[in-house]
Amino acid sequence: MAMTPSGKPFEILTFPAGAWSFAIRIWLATTLALFVSFWLQLEAPSTAALTVSILAEPTRGQALEKAGYRLLATIVGVVASIVITGLFSQTRDLILAAFALWMGSSIFVAKLLDGNRAYAAVLSGYTVGLIATQQLDNPHQVFEVAISRGSSIAIGILATAVVNDLMFAPAQYPRFVAQLAALHRRVRAYAMSVSSREPCNTSTFLDLVRDIMVLGPSMASIGFDANGGPARNAAGQSAVVALAGELQAARILKISMSGAAVDIETAVAPQSRPGEIQGRRETHTAAWATKEFLRRDGGFRADFLALRSAKWPSQARRAPMFRSYRTAIESGVRAALWIAIASALFIWTGWPATSVSLSFVLLIAALGATTPSPRAFTAMALLGVPTAAFLTGILEFFILDGTDAFPLLAIAMAPFLIGATLCMTSQNLLWSSLGRVNLSFITIFLAPSNPQSYNPLTFLITGVFIFVAAAILLVAQILIPPVSDAKRRKRLVSSARDDLGRLRSESGQSPEEATFREMARLDQFISAGGTQDSGSLADVLSCFDQSAVMRLCDAKLLQLADGPMALLADQARAALIAQDAKALRTLAGAIRREVSSENPAASDIATILLTASNLIDGDRQVQPIPEIIR
Fold this sequence. Notes:
This is FUSC family protein. The chain crosses the membrane at residues 20-40, 69-88, 94-113, 353-370, 377-399, 405-422, 459-480. The protein is mostly helical. It folds into three domains: 11-170 and 323-479, no CATH class; 172-224 and 230-309; 485-628, no CATH class. The chain has 23 helices and two strands. A two-stranded antiparallel sheet has the order 1-2. Strand 1 and strand 2 (15-16) form a beta hairpin.
């Protein structure tokens, strides 16, 4: 990235040079996709250009990963279109019901996934809308339309890949490594703040949770970089999971040292070792927590080194996501009802272009399902339609004004596509959303073809179709609102309570992997407005802390399974499941009495059992966190 002498990124008109490079790549890829489509005389050249807009990602790895999922989801959608049309082509009501059920099923799957996998799920849903729905009156043409759409998508993918390579699009790997290293420094700083005797800073912890979980969707795209590969992909995933475990260890460390006069700065310094912690008075709990943090810090460093060396990690870790099936089912059912309401309204009013408008309803509903607020996305689409129509009208009827020369088309499109892409890179959520919506809608409104059609009536009808589709969907979402944030938070807290005490050693998950899953749930809670609900936040954090300590207890007790203290270990595991704090303290004393040179780990096990009993008893009060409710 170009830098100024002051060390800041070089900017042009307040946008960094990297954003301009990204925007120019999108324009060039769109131009190349249209040129090849015109040369091959494809029936849907605008689909190739729209594919470039959809694959507009700043790094090469992200674009290629999304392209792969787009191609796969298109195949699934094409097959579904052929099957649905073949089964219900003679019954319009049943085929519309089948479309609604298919879209609901796609959104159900999307709610169980994240990143580009969720995008692929909804794409397989709205592909049916773009292929089969628009051919309600000509079902025999579904296969031909599917082949044409697939060819155009392939051209758009190839154009994006070629331009990214020729213009040296940045790889995802260096950015991922830099983000991971910065997060690691912040986690260590969070742990070292214990020496300040300040209360456990929950807002800092929640910020770190969110930033670590943001890296989750980026892990898979590393393998699509030229300097990536399966080894780096596995190492990156293990490093992120290890960092989540280290953050949890840092939180336990802060909890265990709350109020203690302990200086652990030397303990977490890079050059120190567990046995070199000096100048402190520590309890057994603080000593164990410090050692556990240092162990996990070492695990992250090993995975991070494997990532940078392109080697397989010594212990490959999975990144399990938390999935709320109840929320996913309800979201899918509500989406199906939205489509059903829109279909019934179109049929009742006798709208002359039901198939076209309904396809846009499916498109907007599907894309909105991948956002935190589907209704807000629909409102943004409703706002973006007149904006895109106005800009495209200027482009088509004032700048191009009947020209049929391709170079003029490419040059005329440049400021509109580049401007929309620059808006996408804005830190302002409104401008970023408008930029992405307009980048796609301008292509849809313009519908480049060879020769280009300059029909004001067609242009007006297209705008009305899209606007009416967004308006009807918004009305349906008001009548049957998406799953509310309050309900999502309530379910997440309930699931955290239900999972409390369920030891995960039987599932084959390591403590770090189980912690990552718990952090995924915590991240979903925050996304649902959890920071504004201090009572529920304290509750879910309490469950989070207890679960982490209980998993560590379970992992440690497994070390005693085959020894002379096997019976005590079994009793301790039973007490953990029952959350019997009194029994845990009694068993901790019994285990501590068995400490010897042959069982040096027994002391740590007794200590962590006492920590678990304190958390279960509520001896540690979870912060009400007034500072983050601002």
